From TrEMBL:
Name by which UniProt lists this protein: Ribosomal silencing factor RsfS
GO biological process, one term: negative regulation of ribosome biogenesis
Record keyword Calcium present: no
Role: Functions as a ribosomal silencing factor. Interacts with ribosomal protein uL14 (rplN), blocking formation of intersubunit bridge B8. Prevents association of the 30S and 50S ribosomal subunits and the formation of functional ribosomes, thus repressing translation.
Organism: Persicimonas caeni
Primary localization class, coarse: cytoplasm
Pfam families on file: RsfS (PF02410)
Biological classification of the source: Bacteria, Deltaproteobacteria, Bradymonadales, Bradymonadaceae, Persicimonas
Subcellular locations according to the entry: Cytoplasm
Any one annotated GO CC term: cytoplasm
Tree of life domain: Bacteria
Sorted UniProt keywords: Cytoplasm, Repressor, Translation regulation
Length: 159
C-alpha cells in the first residue's frame, strides 16, 4: 500500500517490526472487510519481493474462505522470509492465523487467516499445484502497485 492511501476511520498505520515497509492498519479483524485483508496480504508479499502475486476472489464460490492469495518465492529462505513477514505484520495488527503449514520445508507455505489464505510457492512448485486453475469461474482481485506493474514481469529460470 502506498503512503498516500487514506487510512480507514479509526485506524493508525504501524510499521512491521521485521523490516517491512507496508502500512498495516491497527484495526480489529471484525472491522476490516476481507478484500482489504487480501490487498494487505498481497502488499506484504511485495515488501519482500514476492513474484506474480495473485488474489483469487472466492466469495460465494466456497464456504471456507473469501480469498486465496498466491505468490512465488525464489528460494527456500525467500519462502520462509515472506511467511514470517506476513505472519508477524498481521499479528501486530491483531490477526492471528488459524493455521500455518509447510514453512520449514521452504518449498511451499500456507498461512490461513480464515477469510484469506496465503500460499507461498518456491519456483516450479507453484506450477505443480496450479491453484489459479482450481476455480475457473473465480475472478482475480485487481491488485495495484505490485512489482509486476512497477518493475515488469519476472520469470524464474528453470534449471
Amino acid at each position: 500500500m502506498s503512503n498516500d492511501t487514506p487510512l480507514p476511520s479509526g485506524s493508525t498505520p504501524q510499521t512491521p517490526s521485521d523490516g517491512g515497509n507496508s502500512d498495516i492498519y491497527a484495526l480489529n479483524a471484525d472491522e476490516v472487510d476481507t478484500e482489504t485483508l487480501a490487498r494487505d496480504i498481497a502488499g506484504l508479499t511485495w515488501d519482500l519481493k514476492a513474484l506474480n502475486t495473485k488474489a483469487i476472489d472466492l466469495r460465494g464460490l466456497v464456504s471456507y474462505t473469501d480469498f486465496v492469495i498466491v505468490c512465488t518465492a525464489t528460494s527456500d529462505r525467500h519462502v520462509q522470509a515472506i511467511a514470517k513477514h506476513v505472519q508477524n505484520s498481521l499479528s501486530e495488527a491483531g490477526y492471528k492465523p488459524l493455521g500455518i503449514e509447510g514453512v520449514e520445508s521452504g518449498q511451499w507455505a500456507l498461512i490461513d487467516f480464515g477469510d484469506a489464505i496465503l500460499h507461498i510457492f518456491n519456483g516450479s512448485v507453484r506450477d505443480e499445484y496450479d491453484l489459479e486453475r482450481m476455480w475457473p469461474d473465480a475472478p482475480f482481485l485487481e491488485l495495484e502497485d505490485g512489482p509486476d506493474d512497477l518493475y515488469g514481469h519476472f520469470e524464474l529460470q528453470k534449471l
